[in-house]
Fold this sequence. Notes:
GO terms for molecular function: DNA binding; DNA-binding transcription factor activity. By secondary structure, this protein is α+β, with helices and mostly antiparallel strands. Helix content is about 35%, strand content about 20%.
Amino acid sequence: MLAHQKEEDIEAYIQHGLTQFTLNTMTDPRVLREALHAVRRQGYAISIEELREGVASIAAPIRDYTGKVAYALSVIGPVHRFHPYNPGVIAKVKRAANEISEKLGYWPPPSSTRQPT
């Protein structure tokens, strides 16, 4: 959800300090900014042992009727069984998040593809 916040809110979050939870936690502000840009561009986020060792996740934004990201749909599993980089998993999570967004009244602009990011 951080990727879809206002730039000043992202900067305030970064300035507050990036706590390292595991060896994979992003603590370099430049790396985090690049990752957030990628999340906005691709429409999903993947985390592998960034918050907790042994846990992987994929998340996609859920938008409300105004187009604002109000929620996120996340699928979490143990790293030894869950592979979030699987294209099928990515597509299903994004599709489910899009369907929920539509039920909340969001519809992407006609010129965009169906990837609310």
